[in-house]
UniProtKB/TrEMBL annotation, chains A, B:
Gene3D superfamilies named in the record: 3.40.1360.10, 6.10.250.240, RecR Domain 1 (1.10.8.420)
Purpose of the protein: May play a role in DNA repair. It seems to be involved in an RecBC-independent recombinational process of DNA repair. It may act with RecF and RecO.
PANTHER family cross-referenced by the UniProt entry: RECOMBINATION PROTEIN RECR (PTHR30446:SF0)
Taxonomic lineage: Bacteria, Pseudomonadati, Bacteroidota, Cytophagia, Cytophagales
UniProt protein name: Recombination protein RecR
Swiss-Prot/TrEMBL GO biological process terms: DNA recombination; DNA repair
First and last residues of each zinc finger (C4-type): 58-73
Amino acid sequence: MNFPSKLIEDAVTEISRLPGIGKKTALRLALHLLKQNEVVTEALALSITKMRSEIHYCKTCHNISDDVECSICKSHRRDRTTICVVEDIRDVLAIENTNQYQGLYHVLGGVISPIQGIGPEELKIETLIERVMLGDVSEIILALSATMEGDTTSFYLGKRLKETGVKVSTIARGIPVGGELEFTDEVTLGRSILTRINYGNE
Amino acid sequence: MNFPSKLIEDAVTEISRLPGIGKKTALRLALHLLKQNEVVTEALALSITKMRSEIHYCKTCHNISDDVECSICKSHRRDRTTICVVEDIRDVLAIENTNQYQGLYHVLGGVISPIQGIGPEELKIETLIERVMLGDVSEIILALSATMEGDTTSFYLGKRLKETGVKVSTIARGIPVGGELEFTDEVTLGRSILTRINYGNE
């Protein structure tokens, strides 16, 4: 594309670096920003740079935070005996939105994936073991994706955590709420039978 | 959504103001930016604010420009006797990319739309008449959308330009290249017969 302006071209190039945004969408966004008041573009630019430069990662659970320790780890209303292990910050948000969990978190920063060259040492596993060793924790809940990588990571963590003697559980895999039996895949259905629970206990 | 960080929340709010980007996509983009080097987010923020604060609109054709006059109006290789009238900056880019047009442009900044409260006085029509009055122009090509609003604007411009005595043409409406006859709508097909051209002349 030939741009009549270097300024537009630069903005389009930078915006199109974002995931899922191509040159055409970037141009649409740039032209939209051009029509806005200068205050709007400044607020956008400032919020991005401020977020990137001032954000902290919680020293305990590696969740994002405005402070050295995140609001969940600091809270006195959370159950400090349970730690839920997740892959990503987004998983923390997802679980928090269910309002079903009152414990703490531990963000691994990824899952073991030999294809992408991510081994256990790339993940925040040692700090998890340390937290368990401190002795306050009675249960670790593994809440990783039901993929090959997620299962591998769960298996590895289970083995590592066995030494500490802490109780380790994993979130249930089964048919989703609202899901119809005949459309559920065989593996999921098979697992949901093997890991069945007493009726009324769910 | 409950954000663990005010910084993230601000960034997500600002990003989700962009057209076509919801809260979930904004969060995905914010978390992506968090993982990038600080240089990347700074380049993005700078390009946006710089574009918004330093951009000019060409004094002659109202196209975007890094200068008081745009590169097309300044160029000595363009045919200065023809002006193509378009709605938007994006239309200039689209026509430029065809490599079929060597004349100048005039960006109206919209089309007449009573529903949206846009009348002729909101558009850059007076400056177009002035350009024609200067006497160098021999043909005005109306390249507006084939919509009700586009046609209304073409009709209005045709009437206004009649006084000046300049030749006025409009881009052809017909079946698109690669389009099959049986799938073309009746109005387009009817028009393409009425405005037929001598074979070999297209």
